[in-house]
């Protein structure tokens, strides 16, 4: 393995933190250090000698720092092939010194975009010299070690310490791969920023944090999560989230976001809600959600949008559940809930970011806007002679919100603050309705005066007929079938109120 002792380094970093141990190591091994303005000052403060890069290039940093390392003496020193006689002779001819190690930390482009800075500031944070140094050094990994981010200092320190100031070819190839990961991620963010306005048809996703999951949907499937869960949640208890947990947590967080300003509780299984309720306390909301399906709740993912207190915690403690998500837990509630060590407790710190959804299929991916449409009473068009009462309208809004987050074909039966039952993921709407009616009866709900929500239109009047006979008095559906009138006629003949929203909510 071609182990090479590092004799010279170029250091140019935006964030200077944590660089100290590297400087100390380089100093200890007598490495000649070249550096740019701010970094040079920082290294000198560490008591190490530095050659300003301007001395090497015979140019000052110009155009407000847009050009400082971009010079043949710098790039030649990185890129010339040490085993190529012609390159070595040219390096000598032009007095180009070898640079064995390059350490860069790029201008924080992504951070600057996220801060809402004006475009001029964002453009200045497109690093040119740094990204070029990274690519050059990574290309010449046979001879040069590249550290492309402050996140890699500790790894470099470890290897230099263990190998007496040297790196192996395997080290350098590894760091080169890391470097291209950094540069491609950086360019992806720049492209996506520009493409917000340009809409060039290209999908660039770059997630640099990967977490190996225990397994995928089933134990024989490997799986990873690419993303940054720490931004969204603090985990207070329990084992690591599994692949299926993550899928359900995503569904739960999207569902509960519908109930801002209310005290809501939901219980989900396989992304569908088997219990949803509104109440004045978390305990009561949990009790009502649980009552909708006391069987399915076992092993479920639970979520509320209010602080979980001791009363609520004691109420749900006897249930075996996988995950509980809340914006906060009281100390007493945690004491109760932590009684089961595998139970995952998550504090949700923010709403889900992002407005797009991506899925792989066939030999490509499909992307779409998230379904962010939620109908209010104002969006209802009364289609029947009889209009729903205000209480029925409230119930229809509640049912429609749950319906939107349930697998198609779906039917939701509820009142204004409690999911009674749902028919989920059925191949016919009639089956979804029959499933919902059976479930409601099985869990003791009286459907007389209940409301029904459907994710898509009724192609035939069969659903309203079955629902009416079960006691349903008001219905919300998108409408849009050429046979809408048949359903309206049935409702008119049987005293059922029906509203249409014009918005379909398929969820496949
Ligand atoms: N223009 C250049 O030639 C150039 N060379 C290096 N940089 C960047 O300048 C920063 C360090 O600058 P300083 O050492 O002056 O704080 C690093 O983030 C590095 O990626 C440059 N700046 C931007 O492109």
UniProtKB/TrEMBL annotation:
PANTHER family: BIFUNCTIONAL PURINE BIOSYNTHESIS PROTEIN ATIC, BIFUNCTIONAL PURINE BIOSYNTHESIS PROTEIN PURH. One of its GO terms (cellular component) is cytosol. Keywords: Hydrolase, Multifunctional enzyme, Purine biosynthesis, Transferase. InterPro entries: AICAR_Tfase_dup_dom_sf, Cytidine_deaminase-like, MGS-like_dom, MGS-like_dom_sf, PurH-like. The lineage of its organism: Bacteria, Pseudomonadati, Bacteroidota, Cytophagia, Cytophagales. Pfam families: AICARFT_IMPCHas (PF01808), MGS (PF02142). This is Bifunctional purine biosynthesis protein PurH. SUPFAM superfamilies: Cytidine deaminase-like, Methylglyoxal synthase-like. It comes from Algoriphagus chordae. Coiled coil: none annotated. CDD domains: IMPCH. Belongs to the PurH family. Pathway: Purine metabolism; IMP biosynthesis via de novo pathway; IMP from 5-formamido-1-(5-phospho-D-ribosyl)imidazole-4-carboxamide: step 1/1; Purine metabolism; IMP biosynthesis via de novo pathway; 5-formamido-1-(5-phospho-D-ribosyl)imidazole-4-carboxamide from 5-amino-1-(5-phospho-D-ribosyl)imidazole-4-carboxamide (10-formyl THF route): step 1/1.
């Amino acid at each position: 393995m071609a182990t090479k002792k590092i004799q010279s380094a170029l250091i140019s970093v935006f964030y200077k933190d944590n660089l100290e141990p590297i400087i100390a190591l380089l100093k200890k091994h007598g490495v000649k250090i070249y550096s740019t303005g701010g970094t040079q000052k920082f290294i000198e403060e560490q008591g190490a000698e530095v050659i300003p890069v301007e001395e090497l290039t015979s140019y000052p940093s110009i155009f407000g720092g847009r050009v400082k390392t971009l010079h043949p003496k710098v790039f030649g020193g990185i890129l010339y092939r040490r085993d190529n006689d012609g390159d070595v002779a040219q390096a000598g001819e032009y007095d180009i010194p070898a640079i064995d190690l390059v350490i860069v930390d790029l201008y924080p482009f992504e951070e600057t975009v996220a801060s809402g800075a004006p475009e001029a500031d964002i453009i200045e944070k497109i690093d040119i010299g740094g990204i070029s140094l990274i690519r050059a050094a990574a290309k010449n990994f046979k001879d040069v070690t590249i550290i492309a981010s402050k996140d890699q200092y500790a790894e470099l320190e470890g290897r230099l310490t263990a190998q007496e100031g040297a790196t192996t070819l395997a080290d350098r190839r590894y760091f080169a791969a890391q470097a291209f990961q950094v540069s491609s991620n950086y360019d992806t963010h720049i492209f996506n920023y520009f493409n917000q306005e340009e809409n060039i048809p290209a999908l660039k996703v770059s997630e640099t944090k990967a977490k190996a999951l225990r397994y995928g949907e089933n134990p024989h499937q490997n799986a990873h999560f690419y993303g940054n869960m720490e931004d969204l949640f603090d985990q207070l208890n329990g084992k690591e989230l599994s692949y299926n947990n993550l899928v359900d947590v995503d569904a739960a967080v999207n569902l509960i976001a519908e109930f801002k300003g209310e005290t809501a509780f939901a219980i989900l299984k396989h992304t569908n809600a088997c219990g949803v309720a509104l109440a004045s306390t978390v305990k009561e909301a949990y009790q009502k959600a649980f009552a909708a399906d006391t069987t399915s709740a076992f092993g479920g993912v639970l979520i509320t949008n209010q602080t979980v207190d001791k009363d609520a915690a004691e109420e749900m403690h006897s249930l075996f559940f996988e995950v509980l998500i809340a914006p906060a837990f009281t100390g007493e509630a945690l004491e109760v809930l932590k009684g089961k060590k595998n139970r995952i407790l998550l504090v949700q710190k923010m709403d889900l970011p992002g407005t797009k959804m991506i899925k792989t299929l066939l030999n490509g991916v499909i992307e779409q806007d998230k379904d962010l449409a939620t109908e209010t009473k104002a969006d209802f068009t009364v289609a029947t002679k009889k209009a729903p009462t205000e209480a029925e309208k409230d119930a229809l809004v509640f049912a429609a919100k749950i319906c939107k987050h349930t697998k198609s074909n779906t039917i939701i039966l509820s009142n204004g603050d409690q999911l009674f039952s749902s028919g989920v993921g059925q191949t016919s709407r009639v089956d979804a309705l029959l499933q919902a009616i059976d479930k409601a009866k099985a869990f003791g709900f009286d459907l007389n005066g209940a409301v029904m929500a459907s994710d898509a239109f009724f192609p035939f009047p069969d659903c309203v007929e079955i629902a009416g006979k079960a006691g349903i008095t008001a219905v919300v559906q998108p409408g849009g079938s050429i046979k809408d009138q048949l359903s309206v006629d049935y409702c008119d003949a049987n005293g059922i109120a029906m509203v249409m929203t014009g918005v379909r909510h398929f969820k496949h």
